[in-house]
Amino acid sequence: MNIGILGLGTVGGGVVNVLNKNQAQITRRSGDSINVTHAAVRDTTQTRICPTEHIKLTQDPFEVVNNDDIDVVLELMGGTGLAKDLVEQAIKNGKHVVTANKALIATHGNELLALAKDNSTHLLFEAAVAGGIPILKSLEQGLSANQIELVAGIINGTSNFILTEMCNKGRNFEDALKEAQALGYAEADPTFDVEGIDAAHKLSILASISFGCKLQFNQVSTQGISKISSEDIAFATELGYAIKHLGIAKKLDGKLQIHVHPTLVPKTHLLSNVDGVMNSVLVKGNAVGETLYYGAGAGAEATASSVIADLIDIIKGTVNHDILGWQSLINIPNCNADDIESIFYLRLLATDKPGVLADITTTLANHNISVEAVIQKQIDQKNNAHIAIITNLIKTSELNKAVAEIQTHDYIQEDVKIIFVETLN
Q: Are residues 33 and 104 in the same domain?
C-alpha cells in the first residue's frame, strides 16, 4: 500500500515515525506493508522530525494526489482552501483519503463525503477530533447499538490548559495564555482555541456521528473563555465546581442542542478533574449509560495513532462505503437558544447596601427563578461586593429577562456574568 502525505510537519512527521517504530505490529494488524513514497512540503530543504531518505519530497501537492502509484492520500496540511481542492482531486482520482483536518470536515464534510461515495472511495477522519482518543470509532462501532443521548467533552487542550492554570495557580487569563504560548500550546493568534471555534469544529463532527444528522458547524452556539475571571474561578471552587470549556450536544424533544461554552462542572464529576492539555469526552447511551474517554488531544504521535488506525481500516477493508450511515443522514432542527434549559451561575458586582441582595432574589423569583446557592463578598472600601448565585433549572429566555431587569438598577456596577452549569446527568 503506497501512501502520499500532504504536509510533513508535526502530524505528518509523527505518522512516519510511528509507522517506522511500530512497523511489525502495524503490518500484522493490517495484513499488508505500508510504504510512504511521496510527501508534499513547503520547503524541501527544511529539517524534519522524521527520516525522509526513502520519501520523494515535492513542493507541488498535486504531484502527490495525481500520482497513479499512490493508493491513499493523508491530508495533514490543514486549512480549508487548498486542502479542499486536493482532497477533491484525490477522491476523483479514486484514491482513499485520511485527514486530521477538523475545519475541513466540519465546513465541507457533507459534500466531500458525498463525493467519496460517488467515487467508491473512503474519506476517514478519526484524528480530526480529540487527537489520539478513538472517539469516532467508539461512537461508530462500540456504541452502535445505542441511541446517543448526550455527548460532552473537553476537546481543546489549549483552553483546558489555561483554565487549569487559572484554577491551580491563581493566574488570570492573560498570564495563563502567555504561558500556553510560551510552551507551544497556543498560537500567536489564539482566537480559534480560546474563543471556541476549534472546539465547535470538533463538536459538529461528534454531533453528526452521534445523532445521525448532517454536519452543521454554522449552527453551533459558541462562546470562548477570554472573559472568565479569577473571581469566577474562585467562586466556582467555593461552590463545589470547576470551570471547564465544554462542547455539549444533546437531543431533546426531537431538537438538537449543540453549543460550546465555559461550564461549571461539579467537582464530583470525572470531567472536572481533566487538567492541562488533556482531552476527555463523555458519551451517554440509552443502553450502555455513561462512558468516558480520556487521552491526549494533540501531539505528533498521539494524532498519528488515529491517522494510522484509519489507514489500517482501509487496508483491511473494514470500512463501509456508506461511512457512519451518511446516506441516511437527516436534518434535525436546532433548539432555539432561548428555549434551552439549564442551571446557571450568575456573578454580579453590586453596591453593598441593605436590600440589594433581597431585591436581586425578588427579581429572580418574579421570573420563576429560585436561588440554590449564594455567596457575597466585599471586594473594596467603596462598599462594592461580588455576589455569586447558582439558580435552579430554568429556560434561558427567562433568565435573560430577569438579568436585563436586574441590570437596570443603579446598584449594579458592571454587566452580570452568566455561565452555564452542567450536572451531566
A: yes
Listed in sequence order, the residues at least 6 apart from 246 whose beta carbon sits closer than 8 Å to its beta carbon are: 152, 153, 154, 260, 261, 262, 263, 265, 271, 422
Catalytic-residue membership of 202: yes
Torsion angles phi and psi, residue 259, rounded to 5: -150, 155
**Is residue 222 within 8 Å of residue 106, measured between CB atoms?**
no
Residue 249 phi, psi (nearest 5): -135, 130
β-pair partners for 38: 4, 56
DSSP string covering 324-384 = GGGGG-B--PBPPGGG-EEEEEEEEEEE--TTHHHHHHHHHHHTT--EEEEEEEE-STTSE
| Cell numbers at 86, concatenated | 486536493
- Cell numbers linked to 11: 502530524
User: 206 and 247 in contact (C-beta within 8 Å)?
Assistant: yes
Give residue 349's domain range. Answer: 340-421
366 phi/psi in degrees, rounded to 5: -65, -20
Q: What is the mean pLDDT of each successive set of 10 residues along the chain, which is 425 residues long? A: 96 96 94 94 94 96 97 96 97 97 96 93 96 94 93 97 96 96 94 97 95 89 95 96 96 87 96 96 96 94 96 86 53 76 95 92 96 89 88 95 96 95 86
256 shares its domain with 394: no
Q: Which of 84, 95, 102, 202 is catalytic?
A: 202
Give CA–CA dist 270/139, Å, rounded.
20
Classify residue 396: in a domain, yes or no.
yes
Q: Which residue has the cell 497513479?
A: 68
Query: Are 234 and 356 in a shared domain?
Result: no
pTM over 0.85: yes
Q: What angle do CA 107, 110, 111 make, to 5 degrees?
A: 95
Q: What is the CATH classification number for the domain harbouring 265?
A: 3.30.360.10
Q: Grid coordinates in use for 1?
A: 500500500
pLDDT at residue 322, rounded to an integer = 54
Question: CA–CA separation, 289 vs 267, rounded Å?
Answer: 20
pLDDT of residue 330: 61
- Buried b / exposed e over 239-277, threshold 16 CB at 10 Å, is bebbbbbbbbbbbeeeebbbbbbbbbbbeebebbebbeb
Same domain assignment for residues 71 and 141: no
Do the Cβ atoms of 265 and 139 come closer than 8 Å? no
Structural domain tally of the chain? 3
